[in-house]
Write a structure and sequence with these properties.
Layout (H helix, E strand, L loop, with lengths): L1 H13 L8 E15 L5 E7 L5 E2 L2 E3 L6 H13 L4 E16 L2 E14 L14 E6 H7 L3 H16 L3
Parallel strand pairs: 1-6
Antiparallel strand pairs: 1-2, 1-4, 2-3, 2-7, 5-6
Length: 165
């Protein structure tokens, strides 16, 4: 009887064995820390909530023939519905990796500081998103779950204050 339990135990653990990594894939992406000033003149940051309920910034893959800055603007339009935006400057890049079955994906995201212009309340989320919302600077820092993005939001606020944007 003890042998049957051991065999059942072995079967349970062996079935979860991962496929070994066969390929390394590089995925260049770009996005933006988008801000606006509300009626009181306070800075607000736009965040999207992904399918896993994590708050982050709009970003996406760089298409062939596109610059990172063009990608950031396009993705902000697609993911947030904001077409009237101004890229203020480059904030930095984020590197992270994840596994996609038998591939190791190395993603590099170029992040820009972007000012939302026009009707900034006309935000629209894409179907795959759980939510999209303007946050006060402090609430955006609390909501963000990615440390690297949090650092870029802090850098964005420093730039907004120093340059009186």
């Amino acid at each position: 009887m003890a042998n049957k339990k051991v065999e059942k135990f072995k079967k349970y653990f062996n079935r979860n064995r991962r496929v070994s990594i066969q390929e390394i894939v590089r995925e260049p992406t770009a996005g933006g820390v988008i801000y606006r000033r509300n009626k009181s003149g306070e800075v607000e940051i736009l965040l999207i909530q992904d399918a896993k309920n994590r708050w982050t910034i709009p970003k996406g893959h760089i298409e062939p023939g596109e610059t990172a800055q063009q990608t950031a603007k396009r993705e902000i339009g697609e993911e947030a519905g904001l077409k009237d935006v101004k890229v203020i400057g480059w904030l930095g890049k984020i590197n992270f990796r994840y596994r996609r079955i038998d591939k190791l994906v190395l993603m590099t995201t170029q992040v820009y500081l972007v000012k939302a212009l026009g009707d900034t309340n006309a935000i629209q989320k894409e179907e795959w998103m759980n939510d999209i919302r303007w946050f006060s600077f402090i609430d955006a820092l609390d909501a963000i779950e990615y440390e690297d993005i949090e650092k870029l939001i802090l850098l964005a606020m420093k730039k907004i204050r120093q340059e009186k944007l």
